[in-house]
Design goal:
Mean pLDDT: 98
CATH superfamily of the largest domain: Dihydrodipicolinate Reductase, domain 2
Helix content: 25-40%
Radius of gyration: 20 Å
Bound molecules: nicotinamide-adenine-dinucleotide, (2S)-2,3-dihydroxy-3-methylbutanoic acid
Order of helices and strands: EHEHEHEHEHEHEHHEEEEEEEHHE
Distance between the termini: 38 Å
CATH architecture of the largest domain: 2-Layer Sandwich
CATH topology of the largest domain: Dihydrodipicolinate Reductase, domain 2
Strand content: 25-35%
Strand order of the largest sheet: 14-13-12-11-7-10-9-8-15
CATH class of the largest domain: Alpha Beta
Number of strands: 15
Largest sheet: 9 strands, mixed
Length: about 350
């Protein structure tokens, strides 16, 4: 049995607690939030002990790992605290506000000899995973072009008010997932250029971004994100894909329809299941939470590094940082060595 504790009992952490409840041989014995009402509510809902101080919780509990579900500013102190206590760590995205913080967290957990996984769950959505498996399995030959797109007018600000008030919005919050999917499909990135703008006058940060990536294997991808796109059908929170290979093409269309065209056409319904605790339209994200948490447990048991490890996430985070710099300076940025 693995004993874990959750830090941060806000909007998204509830999905993580449901996900843990669906995974064998793991118990979340304690939860912590600086806001005692949130800590108590989550503890009562899921049957755990409640704390308001992470250090006190780590000292009092016998833990194997912590699952950090706070917003980005608290990630580094919490990851370093957990590593100092000799615990394995999962940390929500965006992993860090700076590359220096991200490198420091990877080093701290390495030094403790423990596993660090970033909760970068979009590439674990079952529909996206089906596309990744097909591309990696050579279904369309060698890919030379990709479009990874997420465009929506959904009111994300209602559930996550900080998205309207933070200086950085779509690249850091959502683009990070979509850039990570581009990496998972087409490999690591050599250069990136980006444009970004705010369309919604009521928010602080950018809600539209378009990024052009050159991948190591020679493929080019366009990664485009918008929370200012009013259209029907509303596809939130689906990531749509178009990949061209030298043998054929793959598309992940709206409605979780995976299309592979070679000589003929194969269409698969890759809609995610609606887990008992999940709610449309969030159910594809909610399912991916349980899948990524299961991946972490499998990696712990088998002594291997998670696919979405802290180390791997440095490359996704570098794309976020470089996208902001490129949009600001109208430059094209080489991210090798970041
Ligand atoms: P939230 O503000 O609703 O919850 C965060 C909670 O953490 C708050 O209750 C706050 O009191 C608590 N907290 C902050 N610092 C703390 C500390 N040092 N000790 C104890 N508690 C602390 O935020 P949210 O919307 O749940 O987002 C949390 C994280 O999850 C963000 O990084 C966000 O980007 C991420 N997120 C990920 C996904 C995904 O699909 N992977 C989806 C939504 C949000
Ligand atoms: O997945 C996320 O990180 C969320 C959302 C889908 C709203 O962008 O913040």
């Amino acid at each position: 049995m693995l004993n874990g504790a959750l830090i941060g009992c806000g909007f998204f952490a509830q999905n993580q607690m449901h996900g843990w409840a669906g995974i064998d041989d793991v118990t979340i014995t304690a939860v912590c939030d600086r806001d005692s009402a949130k800590a108590e509510a989550t503890a009562t809902r899921f049957g755990a002990r409640a704390y308001t101080d992470a250090a006190a919780m780590i000292a009092a509990e016998r833990l194997d790992f912590v699952d950090i579900a706070t917003t980005v500013a608290s990630h580094r102190p919490l990851v370093e605290m957990a590593a100092g206590a000799g615990l394995h760590v999962i940390c929500q995205k965006p992993f860090a506000e700076t590359m220096a913080d991200a490198h420091a967290m990877v080093a701290a957990v390495d030094e403790a000899g423990k596993l660090l996984m970033v909760h970068e769950n979009f590439r674990w959505q079952s529909a996206v995973r089906a596309a990744i498996a097909a591309v990696r399995g050579g279904a369309i030959g060698t890919p030379f072009f990709g479009r990874v797109t997420f465009r929506s007018g959904y009111d994300v600000y209602a559930g996550q008010p900080y998205l309207a008030t933070d200086e950085r919005f779509i690249i850091q919050d959502l683009g990070i997932h979509i850039l990570d999917i581009a990496r998972a499909l087409l490999g690591d990135v050599v250069t990136i250029s980006a444009t970004a703008r705010r369309v919604n006058p009521k928010i602080r940060g950018e809600d539209v971004a378009t990024m052009l990536l050159e991948h190591e294997g020679g493929a080019t991808s366009v990664v485009d994100c918008s929370y200012a796109t009013r259209r029907t059908p509303e596809t939130f929170p689906e990531t749509l894909l178009e990949i061209d290979g030298d043998l054929g093409t793959l598309r992940l269309d709206a409605g979780y329809r995976l299309v592979i065209q070679l000589e003929g056409e194969v269409i698969r319904d890759v809609a995610p299941p609606l887990l008992a605790w999940a709610e449309r339209p969030w159910h594809n994200i909610q399912e991916s939470v349980q899948i990524i948490q299961q991946h972490f447990v499998d990696c712990l048991r088998e002594g291997r590094e998670p696919e979405t490890s802290g180390r791997d996430n440095l490359k996704t985070l570098a794309l976020v940082e470089a996208a902001y710099a490129s949009a600001r300076d109208r430059s094209r940025i080489d991210v090798r060595g970041w």
